[in-house]
Amino acid sequence: MSDVVKNLWFRDTKEDAIYINDVAVRIRAGMLLFISIYMSFTLWNAFFVSHWVVDGNTAIDSGDMDWDNNIIYSVHAIKRVYDWTFQTYLLWYGLFEMLAGMSTITARLSPTIYIASFLAKRTAKPIWKPLAPKRFAWTIGASIIATCLVFFNPDVFANWVNTIFQHEVLPTDRQYMSYYIPLSLVWVCLGFMWMEAVMGFCVGCKVHALLVKVGILKDECEACNNIDWDEIARKNQERLAKEAAAQQSTEQHAS
Question: Domain of life, per the record (predicted)?
Answer without folding.
Answer: Bacteria
